[in-house]
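User: Please fill in residues for this 50-position structure.
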């Protein structure tokens, strides 16, 4: 089983595919995770948990 399928491969046995949908979804998830991490840090500073 291949983890990432290249655009020119003809296989159907893969987990992720190198296309615009996968790239934009990955970018969206990374941005959301960064916003959540910053929110936890800021709330920790606000409530003086550090």
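Assistant: Residues filled in for all 50 positions:
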């Amino acid at each position: 089983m291949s983890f990432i399928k290249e655009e020119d491969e003809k296989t159907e046995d893969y987990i992720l595919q190198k296309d615009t949908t996968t790239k934009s979804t990955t970018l969206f998830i990374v941005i959301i995770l960064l916003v959540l991490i910053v929110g936890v840090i800021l709330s920790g500073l606000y409530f003086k948990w550090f």
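For context: The first helix runs from residue 20 to 46.
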